[in-house]
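Example record for the data management plan.
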Amino acid sequence: RKRRGSFVIPADGKNESQTVAHCPQARHYCGDIRSSSNDDNVPMTLLDCYKQCFTTASSSSSSIPNDYHSDSPILLDPTMTINYLARLSPSFVRESRAEAYAALRCIHGQERDGGMGSSGSGGAFRMLFLETNRFWTRYDAYVRIPLNVVPKMMSQRSSGKKKNDGDVRVWGRDVEDLGYDESVCRGVVEVLNRALGDRITAVRLFTSGNGDIRKDGTSSNQSVENTGTKALEDSDQCYAVPIRGSGSSPSTSASAFVAKPGGRSPEPPVHPLNQDEPCLVVGLRIDPNASRRVVDRGPPAEDLEGSNAFVSLWGDHAQLRRFQDGAIVRAVVWNLPVSPKNSVVESMPQFASMDRSMGGIVEKVVQHIVKLHFTESKLIKKGKAKQVSFELRSMVGLVDGVSSSPKPSPLSDSFTLHKNVMSAFDSLAEFLRQNSITMIDHSLGADKKASKLGLPLKIDEVEPLSPSLRYSSLFPPVPHPLLGGTDQGTDKRKVSGAVEGSPVLVQIRFEGSSKWPSSLNAMGAAKCAMLIQLAEGIEKMKQSENLDEFDGPIDVTPTYLDVGYRGYSWRVIVRADQELRMLKNLSNPTGEAKSLRLSLINRHVRGSMHHSLIHAVHTRHPSSSLVSRLAHRWVSAHM
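Corresponding structural encoding:
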């Protein structure tokens, strides 16, 4: 069913159609304004005039399909002179509709699961009305755009230009109808939505630059002790733990917490700089899959008007490129190094792996669009343009370092380090599986089978257990030259022999066989013998086949094997399901047997399941790597 774009409150004793037909304002509009105008674009009725005024796009190009303002609410009184919902933005209407759909899905899902509110957990009622939703969890990015650098857009009538003069405006077409402030708000939302495309699923304008929200009603020129805080700033943003001081002390700085008398918690500080500068705050909900797209392709070269609109949107970033399918179109590429001309983006700290895991491409798009369309060119030339700030952005510095150059070292990129160790694991797993295949060896006898590693059983699975193999290690391992890593032009004689971090833990599983012993002590000895034979087999293959990937000492203990491969220290343990079944089938297990069984289950079974679950979450949500590492850092700081 198609949604209606406008409503008129019916008068007493009349329906909506009769109210519109007998409205004096509507009759005056049809009789005076429409009859005296020769422009074909003038709306036919007063209701159509309201629709055009509140739903017109900011761009002056007809080749840009944009219905982003079609959600502007119109609710007129019976006289058709007042729009009761004129203060509501289209983004608010879209967010309310999305929340309503989410509530319906929640209710229907709970009803299918056994009824709403019938279970002990409270069901949908608890999820909708009892559970709190923190402000910072509503959107993925909060962008603060300064208003004092936005150019003063003139209407086409004031500038003396007509619609057919070739002036392709990205925003500002509605400045004459809506006013400068409302036109800027709509233009920011519309241009960001058009530029980001499917990289975002929602964009919401929170403030329109009408001042700060003060808790006690004080003005902005009063002291810090008597003021509250900005509307979008709370203790979640202040990730440091400063010393708490008294609010009455004159030495209290703006960067410290102010503990008010009788307060349950310290008040967060007011930002010390640029307090009275108006700004727009926009919330972005990022699509985790489409946000990592690095190329935006424009329309075909035959579409002249569409190409001009594409160039007007992206500026110099839109360049002609030839693609593999033979198409030659204008496109924008976002994985290029930062150029010195882009001073606004270059002045902000660039974190490692931000393009892959934290919406860095979205940030680059926003920075470029705001600088190109919503910043005075005079300020850009003088170098006085204020940069767009992303709230909570610097929290990433707790787990990722800042890139010191446009092309940082791969050793400082956590994503690259995780990917390298996972690639080394795949290579090691393939080596163990292929070289443990048993074949008939005539030198040992007629029916004797052996593998290159000398193992009597084939290795079926090599399973990862280490956090560095699921993108959740706080400090991913760095390849070491003395453990088979790449040389990288360094002299191994001058490299320290110390290895930072713990070994990468993996477990191997052998094929099923009836030759496993039937006692617990013998089972432990058999597992140790397998590890000893694996170490000896690797040493023999290093001498015969010159395996450069293996380097460093090989240490064997009764429970694990440490070996160096491709620069990493690996710890190999043996998982024997026969041992678990043996412990489970004990009729009268002792306390030691129960403890051993629980330890083996936690290490081998639950550890493998936990690894698979966390890795699957990262595959679905790439930002989970930063979240888990940040949680690890927080727990380590408080324990």
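Summary line stored alongside the record: The CA atoms of residues 583 and 597 lie 6 Å apart.
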